[in-house]
Write a structure and sequence with these properties.
Elements: H1 4-18, H2 23-72
Amino acid sequence: MIGSTEMILIFGVVVLLFGASKLPELARSMGKASGEFKRAQRETELEMRRLDEPIRQEAGSISQNVQKLASDLNIKTEGKLHE
């Protein structure tokens, strides 16, 4: 965890490197980048869920078909199902 002394030191280095007049611009661009990253992360998570749903449905359908086939062949499935 960064303490107050380290934060002051980092702030001082930033002021020396970029100058006091560039700090608002730098903070604004960092805020925009952070917001853009979070938006992209949310969109990626939603897309992954959207793509994952048909796979889960198909897996459930396959499981039911295998279970029915086993039942038709008189194969016991108790304790052997994997969900």
